[in-house]
Amino acid sequence: MSKECQSPGMQVTFLGTNGWYDSPTGNTVSALISSRDYDIILDAGNGIAKADRYISQDKPVFLFISHFHLDHTEGLHTLVKFRFRKGLSICGQVGTTADLAGLVREPYTVPLEQVPFAVTVTELADGLHELPFRVTCLPLVHPVPCRGFRFELDGKVITYCTDTGFCDNTITLAHGADLLITECGLKPGQKSPGWPHLNPEEAIRIAKAAKAKRLALMHFGAEVYKTIEERRALKAQFEKEFPGLIVSEDGMTVEV
Questions:
Q1: Fewer CB within 10 A of the end CB, N or C, for the chain?
Q2: Which helix (H) or strand (E) element contains residue 127?
Q3: Cβ neighbours of residue 168 under 8 Å, at least 6 residues apart?
Q4: Distance CA 11, CA 109 (A)
């Protein structure tokens, strides 16, 4: 899309940036893309409860769930607090409908059919979809089925890949992205072959291979990065390797 057609002002707000569990460094995983016509929430960790601080709830809202580990879904318990006037569309991989039915129900929480707004669930096969904005989903490398997403809207490309080891699909999804949001569950040099996650060097390797314009790190392992200062040190350590590196924190907003 030409620069003349691009709509300035699209933002990404990091609502929860921790992996595994809440800690003084932040809530579990959730982020918000605020576009011209839609609010798009990425995953539903406990950070999702803060979404109403940043949205009017007057636009259609989409929630994309990468997978069903609890640090990405435990915030579904808080959906009943919202008043999405144009409804909520929950999107995820094939099987999402059944997984939601097992998790968002009595006696655990208020079922989706009882929340005070309309909810639809859309299962996405791997590949390209028009929802009406364009989204591509592909499998990542994780112990359970997990999907990464590439969003194309307002003349921009935002890619979201969390809970993954290094794999070709991350590069495919992030090709030429204006912003790649990916995980940083491990510290520099750390490896976790039995439970794949990325360290900052691998995240930068993906961004460079994909020729992404900017890279934002999130999903910091709560048991690994125990202080905000440990996260912030990554920017000083790696910004020369990837200029403009974003090390996310809860409540941070960036322009896209």
A1: N
A2: strand 127-130
A3: none
A4: 31
DSSP β-bridge partners for residue 40: 33, 62
pTM for this model (two decimals): 0.95
| 35 vs 40: CA distance, rounded Å | 8
Task: Take residue 155 and report the two structure tokens written for it.
Answer: 């003349």
What b-and-e string marks burial along 224-233, b requiring 16 or more CB atoms within 10 Å of the CB?
bbeebeebee
Q: What share of the chain is helix, strand, coil (3-state, %, to 5)?
A: 25, 30, 45
The length of the chain is 256
For the chain, list the domains and their CATH numbers.
10-255 (3.60.15.10)
Confidence of residue 3 (pLDDT cuts 50, 70, 90): very low
What average pLDDT score do residues 154-170 get?
Answer: 98
The per-residue pLDDT for 243 is: 97
